[in-house]
Design a protein that fits this description.
globular, 4-stranded antiparallel beta sheet, about 240 residues, 5-stranded antiparallel beta sheet
Length: about 240
Amino acid sequence: MNKNEELLKSYDDKFLDVKSIKSLDDSDISSSKKLFEVESLINRKPTPKKLNVVCLVGGLPFEKEFINEIKSIQLKISDILENIPHYLVDPENLATECIVLKWPNNNFSEDLINKTITYLGGFELKKFKLSSFGFQFHKDGAIILRCIDSSSTMRNHRKYMIKNIKEIPTTQSSWAHVPLGRILGPVEFNVLKKLREYALFTQKNCRFSTYVKKYSLIKEYRWYQTERSLIQNFQLL
């Protein structure tokens, strides 16, 4: 099994958690709801919580054609969920996460930013093709676009950075996905069935791709890049 097949299997294994369940209840999605301001959930206008994260992301923003494909999937998801509270990432905030330098509760030295900039500046970083294999959702309410980075380019960048910059947190994603949003209310069987069916449809039929030509090192002040500042861009050749 090659690395791309391993990644798809990893997505599939996680999706199995919702393939046979009959509903999603508040206890399932509680971790998703904790990412949003309490008052905003009461008002049914979800606003991501403030935080302090430093991360390196790719595709911020993605090319227009890639964004439009994602928007069509998000629109259908929203139609299926209808009146069930949910949050969808704004098009201009869509990105794939290469590596996190600081999680919200981590101690952090600004020197890590300088080490990362120096490290990335020492390489001819290659652009890569990011290909969609449809979307999936998880029992905690997360909704993601299943993606593969060609030749494991981004995943290799992540691996080398963890190996060579000791201060980087070891807790990292092993995927190349794009976060699409969160389910924030209970989902009964009929809606869950429709959402599963649409997810499986996209996994077979929604194949589209883009080239990621830059990384962005950002400070994130609210989840899903809704408030952020750019530290530095790195062009991928």
